[in-house]
Design brief:
alpha+beta; Beta-Lactamase; Arc Repressor Mutant, subunit A; 2 domains; five-stranded antiparallel sheet; 10 helices; 5 strands; about 45% helix
Amino acid sequence: MTLLQAMKNQIEHIAPAGSYVALRVGFSFPEEEMNNLPDTWVEFYTTHGLVVQDPAMRWVYGNVGGIRFSEMAVTDPHQVRAHAAVFGLGHGAAVSVMTPQDKGRRSYGLFFRDDRDFEDAEMDGLVRIMQQLHAGPEDEKSLTNAEVEALKLQSEGLRLKQIAARLGISESAVKARLNNVKRKLGARTQSQAASIAAARRIL
């Protein structure tokens, strides 16, 4: 289970109408994402190309911190927020996180309620959650040199048998190291683990 999956209940408690979280977005794609928005809204949003018109998306890529949609001083000529309200997403908040060490990679979340605007404590909670998610799992910092070495060899295209021979260990030991890396990075596959490790400059 990834850190994002583990925090899903906390996010849903604060934003019961839906949310979208993108973690450590580089050039254009996130390392990990969670979409808990209504399917009908996602289809409408995608079909109408609203991502390039969405004031919340402009805000998250131009700012750091958290803001309620009602406080945004960004124009919405395509009425993205009004359309969202029709789909039960009447009140929203955006959070964007990036540090100087991130070299342009940021994490962001869009959060929704239908009953009322977000309270200050909820905004603070969303910012804390996003900061924690952006930092990544604590386990990542505990990758051993042996685990990194096995992952590096696999990312170079070597098979388990070749990695085992190169490292002078059994194939089952290689599998154990690679499974540990996958677990620690919150990856579902070995190729995703390699991508995450490369994006985080572990490799």
